[in-house]
Amino acid sequence: MIYLDNAATGGFKPNESLEYAETVMRHLSANPGRSGHRLSLAGERIVYSARETFAKELNCTEERVIFTKNCTEALNLAIFGTVKRGGHVITTAYEHNSVLRPLHFLKENGVISLDIVEESADKDILSAIKEKITDKTYLVVTTAVSNVTGKTLPVKKIGEFLQPLNVKYLVDGAQGGGHVKLSLSNGINMLAFAGHKGLCGIMGSGVLSFDEKTEVSPLLFGGTGTNSFSLKQPEEYPERLESGTLNLPAIASLSVGAKYAFSHIAEFSEYLNGASAKIIDELKNEKAFKVYSEPNPAGIVAFSVDGFSSFEIADILNEKYDIAVRAGLHCAPLYHRLLNTTEGGLVRVSLAVQNGRRDIETFLSAVKSIKRR
Known about the structure:
This protein is α/β, with parallel strands linked by helices. The protein has helices at 15-27, 38-58, 71-81, 97-108, 125-132, 155-162, 248-263, 265-284, 310-321, 333-339, 357-370; strands spanning 2-3, 65-68, 87-92, 112-117, 137-143, 168-172, 190-194, 206-210, 289-291, 300-305, 323-324, 347-350.
């Protein structure tokens, strides 16, 4: 199968990432940080090495790199762990439900007030955020890269604006991780990542990192391997936010996958920007196609085809041509409302660097043939 659904989960991993996870599962079935024997200590060293990789890349301390099971959990931890009753939060219409649903829950239960902003013909996203800032605003949440169209938000500019205002800035890096350079600087206080997409890890890992000015309260309470006699949750990070057994195989995979992705981010982004540009240019030349993406470093192209729902196109590509793409609303309903595509959804092609010229040409030939049927 030609796999073009890498924005859902990365279909290609470096061999080292897969082999490390397998080695841990076969030979290191021990709980990191819970015992004093050599296997437990070896597991703890793997976890610490992964923290070091992220701390170095993201410009934070190792203890403020928190491992979760996915980016959704990391975002929930950041949102609920910093909530201020009676406070005001700003987010955007480009967000995934992993951001929108927890914020909607807090708003519906009277905990916060919420504004959702978007760009317009005469207003960019930063200007839209500026207009909504109040003296009660304590948090702004935006994605780095939209999972629908690959739209890249100006997170550095947003962070620099927020920095002197004492407003925390949380960035959803699920799609941006491994594709655009992100760090805890320029006003960005918290970063959430998915381990299984651009960071080249296996499923089951996510990361929340945050700076020294930010305190995050735990959502999960339990065993941490430290201060076991106390019934209180530890105050120290990362134990404060990492109750229960960590997913050691997934963290091991992520430790080498992320290092690989971070070291190649410039060349990978350049390739995916060019590859997405090629698909966009080809589809724009076809009258039956409407393209919703611009070239982007995440390699995402969203489009529709006259006379077909997105699900029909995806089914035909799957069944007749053995090509995997994503159809529907992509868990981002407000963006689809903005694009007026809520009824039929969009087809999303999402590339990895391993998708070479042959994959792209085969996809283009296949999808063009569908509209001629």
